[in-house]
Amino acid sequence: MAGIEDIKNAAEKAAGKAKEAVGNVTDNDRLKAEGQTDQAKASAKQGATDVKDAAHGVADSFKNDK
Q1: Cα 46 from Cα 16, distance rounded (Å)
Q2: Helix runs in the chain, H state only
Q3: Is the Cβ–Cβ distance between 19 and 40 less than 8 Å?
Q4: Confidence tier at 3 by pLDDT (50, 70, 90)
Q5: Could you report the per-residue pLDDT of 12-66, keeping only the tens digit for each?
Q6: Residue 1 CA: distances (Å) to CA of 8, 25, 36, 52, 60
Q7: Which of 13, 28, 29, 35 is least crowded, fewest Cβ atoms below 10 Å from its Cβ?
Q8: In the chain, what is the greatest distance between 2 CA atoms, to the nearest angstrom?
């Protein structure tokens, strides 16, 4: 279910951006760093999901060729 994973990753990235913004406003370096880390994790997860989707697409194309 790539669609669900896409939504989860987008939500995690948005939460990270919000956390970073709060850290910027409050001048809280720890919070800024946590927000940036959350965004990086979400981006990495999204990248993995994209690769998995592409692999499924290739596998499906082989199935359809038979």
Answers
A1: 14
A2: 2-26, 29-65
A3: no
A4: confident
A5: 999 999 999 999 999 999 999 999 999 999 999 999 998 988 887 776 777 776 5
A6: 11, 37, 26, 11, 15
A7: 29
A8: 60
